[in-house]
């Protein structure tokens, strides 16, 4: 017998709700948007269809970068869906981190995302429709979650500027490969620690980040307060190095088996997932939904185009 789900606690607060989830012994920062329900509705009955979007970040894997994007998705869907996003292991700093020196492998990230998906399935009633959206290497993670749980209610997988194969052979992969080596990780981590020491006041560091990167205020705040920690930067670089080694061959059999579930969105000037990948996807899988961006979005769409991408993704969900 399926137990009705008590109304989402996030409905009691202004979205999104931030929380730390303990998953397999590791603490994971999360964001949660609740589906809007009538004030007198206290349960979600098993017979009522429900949609949950599970967001997997790219690298850096800080879910707070995706706040404007996911808010836009929620608004486009008129608040009728739940949205849940989780940061990558090791890609955050704070009291919830038990071992700042630990470097998390790509396979540990996969296992963590599958475990989070399993937790979501326990929370929501039977019959819930799950949509997994992945950005950049998060698209590869999304495929791995689908492969691990092929018959568990995953109805769509959105790959946004997807890096599904040959990352090391991309323009950025070739240019940045030396950054992912142990010596370079140590140097960069030390520079970040020095920067935080010199500019210890958060508003000052945030202003400097905004000035140097051109990031808007909210994104510069995420970069300065959440990304620029030695342990986080080292984990990001370590994970990137693992991606170069592991993400080489596209899982063509998986895509073919679940072809109706996929929607891929490519950029025209993306140096992590070149436009050739879009044409290759179309050639290999003529029936797949593959789109080429005509809005001038960059690979890191969360930095300036989050709302526009949210409208697109929300529209895909509305069309399900």
Automatic annotation (TrEMBL):
Coiled coil: none
Family membership noted in the UniProt record: Belongs to the AB hydrolase superfamily. LDAH family.
GO CC annotations, alphabetized: lipid droplet
GO molecular function, a single term: lipase activity
Domain of life according to the entry: Eukaryota
Pfam families: LIDHydrolase
Protein name (record): Lipid droplet-associated hydrolase
Biological process terms in GO annotation: lipid storage
Record-linked InterPro entries: AB_hydrolase_fold, LDAH
Organism (species): Entomortierella parvispora
Keywords: Hydrolase, Lipid droplet
Protein localization: Lipid droplet
């Amino acid at each position: 017998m399926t137990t009705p789900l008590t109304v989402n606690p996030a409905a009691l607060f202004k979205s999104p709700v931030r929380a730390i989830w303990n998953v397999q012994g590791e603490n994971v920062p999360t964001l949660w948007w609740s589906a809007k329900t009538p004030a007198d509705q206290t349960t979600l009955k098993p017979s009522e269809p429900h949609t949950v979007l599970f967001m997997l970040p790219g690298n850096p894997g800080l879910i707070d970068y995706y706040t404007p994007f996911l808010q836009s998705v929620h608004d486009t869907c008129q608040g009728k869906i739940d949205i849940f996003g989780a940061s990558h292991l090791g890609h955050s700093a704070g009291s919830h981190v038990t071992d700042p020196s630990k470097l998390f492998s790509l396979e540990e990230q996969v296992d963590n995302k599958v475990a989070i998906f399993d937790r979501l399935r326990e929370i929501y009633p039977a019959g819930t429709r799950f949509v997994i959206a992945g950005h950049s290497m998060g698209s590869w993670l999304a495929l791995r979650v689908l492969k691990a749980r092929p018959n568990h209610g995953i109805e769509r997988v959105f790959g946004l500027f997807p890096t599904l194969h040959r990352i090391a052979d991309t323009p950025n992969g070739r240019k940045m490969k030396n950054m992912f080596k142990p010596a370079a990780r140590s140097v960069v981590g030390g520079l970040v620690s020095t920067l935080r020491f010199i500019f210890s006041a958060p508003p000052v560091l945030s202003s400097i980040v905004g000035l140097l990167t051109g990031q808007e205020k909210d994104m510069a705040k995420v970069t300065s307060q959440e990304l620029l920690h030695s342990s986080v930067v080292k984990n990001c670089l370590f994970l990137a190095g693992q991606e170069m080694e592991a993400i080489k061959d596209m899982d063509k059999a998986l895509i073919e088996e679940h072809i109706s579930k996929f929607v891929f969105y490519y950029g025209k000037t993306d140096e992590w997932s070149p436009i050739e990948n879009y044409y290759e996807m179309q050639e290999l899988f003529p029936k797949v939904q593959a789109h080429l961006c005509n809005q001038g979005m960059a690979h890191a769409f969360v930095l300036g185009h989050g709302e526009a991408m949210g409208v697109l993704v929300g529209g895909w969900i509305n069309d399900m």
